[in-house]
Amino acid sequence: MKKKKEEEEEEDDDDDDVDSGEDDEEERSIDVSQLSRETTRQHVAEVLNEYDFLLLVERMDESLVVLQFLLDLDTDDLLHLNSKSAGNYAMLLSDETCHRIQPSIVSDATMRYLSSSYWHNEHYGDYLLHAAIDASLDRTIADIGPERFEKALATFRQRMVLAQERCEAHAHFPCSSTGEVQWELSEESCYDLDWGCGYPCLDELPEITSR
Fold it and tell me: What is the model's pTM?
């Protein structure tokens, strides 16, 4: 009986060791996660310190108008055309052919995945950087003055509408609206590739609209 009791006690000790090991593993996992997040925060801080200005695609108009104030630019200095406004084609540089841009479709399953805590944890740094830039934009707008900023933003958007109306038809992109390659035309219309296309018309826009 004594021997059996000793064996049972040894088994209990072994179970405690297993439980303790699991707890240690979980604790180490938490420590690693916390350490990883702290490292990520440091990296994000470094990025913010390295760049003088960062824009948000979701707030592109506001970002550009903030840049206008920071660099003391004229509204027309910001005008541009959408690089895909000539049609749903894009140049694939690897073979210099035009490929149709497929519409973006996000399934319910994909949306659930992108909304999951797992996805957010895996991309913690991206979300942190985005939030920091978003907050920085808000602070800069507050420093400029909300009323002054909103007036400049409205002017910019009005000029952008005019730019699209007057210049879109005069812009020649590397890919035509039917998917044909047109390098020679685009070289006269774009700074490079499909960047800054339509700039000759945009440069003349202030003169045209002042007549």
Answer: 0.74
